[in-house]
Amino acid sequence: MVAFWVSLLAISILLYVLLDGFDLGIGILFGLTRDQARRHAMWGAVAPIWDGNETWLVLGSMGLLAAFPIAFAIIIGVIAVGLVWAWLKR
What we know:
Blueprint (H helix, E strand, L loop, with lengths): L1 H31 L3 H11 L3 H18 L1 H21 L1
Helix pairs in contact: 1-2, 1-3, 3-4
């Protein structure tokens, strides 16, 4: 049963990384340009598929919660500390 959950989580993370590369690349390029026309074109290219790619991230995190709740609690605790620190630093 553990092998099933590990495989499911690995597949969801792999799909997230492969399918979200376009979104992440646009996000990086978006910060490097100041031309509003280019920014509008970038946003127009990524907007239709933005939420669809995030589904894999949600599936992976909820799969981690269902299969390994202790690992989920540890990971979320670390992420929460990092997010609060980043929020306070802005």
